[in-house]
UniProtKB/TrEMBL annotation:
Protein name: Transcriptional regulator, IclR family
UniProt keyword Lipid biosynthesis present: no
GO molecular function, one term: DNA binding
Phylogenetic classification of the source organism: Bacteria, Pseudomonadati, Pseudomonadota, Alphaproteobacteria, Acetobacterales
Provenance organism: Roseomonas mucosa
Domain of life assignment: Bacteria
């Protein structure tokens, strides 16, 4: 593994659940000799990618890393508009939502809102096949990229079940999964920016769409997602979410 790849792997070790790490923890997480981990961390600190936590032997992401992330977010219409959509939707009713990205086979949650206010995202990362947002993002990948990813799916849920979910997501243009609470469900849409060839997911925890409260919210959700797709230029999502046309008599 090159120094650059190792540094990238170190940055992926940090998460809301692990905002600070020691050299030993990094070595254990990456299965590296402690001397190698120490050398990489020292180089990353000198370059400004991580900082030493005062009064301890721990490290945390540096200001340079955080500033680069903020520049990326501020410079992306896709990111800004996704935040605005999530803000509006989270104010509509008994609903919360997140904006997420795909990193390999994992989904990384960047932002969560509830009742129109930002709240801490769920800690850490999740396997993409265990998460509505992750499945929505996987469904937007080129077909050639999927076999290698599906080969990593564990027996539960299994590659066949994940494949069926992805096929349904492509047909419906969103993923719908049971929620963590009774009469709630997860709804996720992946929006692809054709200029950047990057996708982000908006996932929503909503009242079950089989009941009146969920049915009342669904038109507003679809309208917001169609508007976002049109603004970003995601023609596939816009076409997939187009209202059904009445049949001729």
């Amino acid at each position: 593994m090159s120094m650059l790849n190792t540094a990238a792997a170190v940055l992926r070790c940090f998460s809301p659940a692990h905002p600070e790490l020691t050299t030993s923890e990094v070595a254990d997480l990456l299965h590296l000799p402690k001397s190698n981990a120490s050398r990489v961390l020292r180089a990353m600190r000198e370059a400004g990618f991580i900082d030493a936590v005062p009064g301890s032997r721990r490290y945390r992401p540096g200001l340079l890393h955080l500033e680069l992330g903020q520049v990326l977010r501020n410079g992306s219409i896709q990111w800004r508009e996704a935040q605005a959509v999530l803000l509006r939707l989270s104010r509509l009713g008994r609903m919360s939502g997140e904006v997420s990205l795909l990193d390999g086979t994992e989904v990384v949650r960047l932002l969560r809102m509830k009742d129109g206010l930002p709240v801490p995202p769920a800690p850490g990362r999740a396997a993409a096949w265990d998460d509505a947002a992750g499945l929505a993002l996987l469904a937007r990948l080129p077909g050639a990229a999927l076999p290698a990813l599906l080969a990593q799916v564990p027996p539960e849920p299994g590659a066949e079940a994940v494949t069926r979910t992805l096929e349904a997501a492509r047909r419906e243009s969103f993923v719908r999964l049971p929620g963590p609470e009774e009469r709630m469900e997860s709804l996720a849409f992946a929006v692809l920016d054709p200029a950047r060839e990057e996708a982000i997911a908006i996932s929503l925890l909503v009242p079950d769409l089989s009941y009146p409260e969920g049915q009342r919210l669904l038109p507003a959700i679809l309208t917001e997602m169609r508007s976002l797709a049109a603004l970003i230029g995601d023609r596939d999502l816009l076409r997939g979410l187009a209202p059904a046309q009445p049949r001729a008599a």
